[in-house]
Amino acid sequence: MIITTSWDDGHPLDYKLVALLEKYDIKATFYIPLANTENSVMERSQMKEVSKYHEIGGHTVNHIYLNKLTELEVKNEINNCKSELENLLV
Asked: Which residues, at least 6 apart from 77, have a Cβ–Cβ distance to it below 8 Å?
């Protein structure tokens, strides 16, 4: 049996969840924005630690509604998040 889970928004409490997932050998994907004006986001060092066992997926830079942005702003939100995560998690 294969089980995987996904978690959205990169809240600092997700970092505590990692220990529980690892205890039961459950893999997860964490979709983490780089910033969020509504909630806290994991520290960069925590993201790096999580990435050792789990997948980190790009979210956006600022956790904003993409349908309210121009096409160029959407591309920047997605591409800049991806680039920064790739640099951080190498």
From this structure: 60, 61, 62, 64, 66, 69
Estimate to the nearest angstrom the gap between the alpha carbon of 21 and the chain centroid: 16
pLDDT digits (tens, 9 = 90+) for 9-57: 999 999 999 999 999 999 999 999 999 999 999 999 999 999 999 999 9
CATH number where 63 lies: 3.20.20.370
C-alpha pair distances (Å), 22 with each of 1, 81, 87: 16, 26, 25
Q: Which amino acid is at 68?
A: K
- Where in the sequence is the domain holding 48, given as residue range(s)? 4-88
- The pTM for the full model equals 0.88
